[in-house]
Structure prediction request, 155 residues.
Amino acid sequence: DVAVAITGAGTLRLLAERVFAKMAGHIGAHAAIFYGVEDDRRLRAVAGLSIPAERLESIRILFGEGFAGQAAERRERIVATRVPAGTALEVPVLGGTARPRTIVAVPLVFQDHLLGVLELGLYRDPDPETLAFLDVLSDQMGVAANNLMANRRTQ
Prediction:
């Protein structure tokens, strides 16, 4: 279902938005940020789910900083169950904000090349099936992102 949604996405933003639409109902991630690699040591927020646009546009993270930066630097999934206040994944709700219970940051890697990081806010702890789904999703998104970038280079 998600693989079909990401097929034919013309930009990284559209790719992320399609994944967010499918993923929210499937695993209960109601807040998310997709980061693209801006340069060799920095991520830039490209798309978000439930994140105000003005906040999203200003997010830049160095590798090693925060959960997304750690996932980028280590090139491995990070799961954090004690989410600190002030995270970018806090979501405006009913005039206030809601903080996710768990954050999962998944690097998108294709042939050992980091293409981005998907950071998700879950309001429950992820079960093993959810984590396995995210691992498969990151592989699929890595292939799709690589194809997008290759197509952009050849145009």
DSSP finds five helices and eight strands in the chain. The longest helix spans residues 128-154. The mean pLDDT is 84.
